[in-house]
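user: Kindly work through both lines:
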Amino acid sequence: MSQRILSNLDALVTETFQFHCDGEGTFTSLKAKVSHLATQIAVLEKLGPVARLVRRGEALPMRALSYNIKKLSEDDSKRDGQGDSRWASLQKLGCQTAIFSMISCSGLALLAAEEYDWLLNNVRRYLTVQELPRDWVAREQIRKVLANAPRRPNIISFLNSYHDIETRCITTERNLTEEEPARKRIPVENSRLWKWERSQEMDTTGCLATLFPKDETQDVSFTIWCGHNDGYFLNDVFAVQRAISS
């Protein structure tokens, strides 16, 4: 995708030599569009590396988040293009988007007005196509920074919003963790052997068997008894090719 965009820009540079002045502000319009694109690229240059770190699960630059929360909430008088303070306008983006913006731009209080306005108008659109993990904002790094954030009146609602997100992420993670073992048991519980063992009120099962060798130089043998259709499913999961058919 990146190379395709660069190639399109190269083609555009070539095509500008064919640009004819019609005397009705064509060059003024062209300069305005190019200037807007330059602003967009300047902001994307800040957002891109952080999105990449989030996707990879790598450490994020938390000093930027800590500094921005402190500085923006202290200087709650600097206005954006809509007349709000920069701290207030960030909150309108939503907690998660605001956090991403504050991590990405180390000095939001001093960011050029045109770049800040572009960020406000487009960062949510940007995040919708970045395919970030849904729970990235609940990572421990971010929790620690917000736990130590100053408790000023204009920060409390922001911290409460984060706490709500954090709670939802933890609840979802817990539910998935509790459901996972049950899903893994389904193939075994569909086997005739399992059902027969349960009908005999047996407390153990022979559906799972492991054979460990005496030393580390040999492999471990693992045998699973499962339902007929589940067997085909597991066969596909492990990409096993049948050598003998009976």
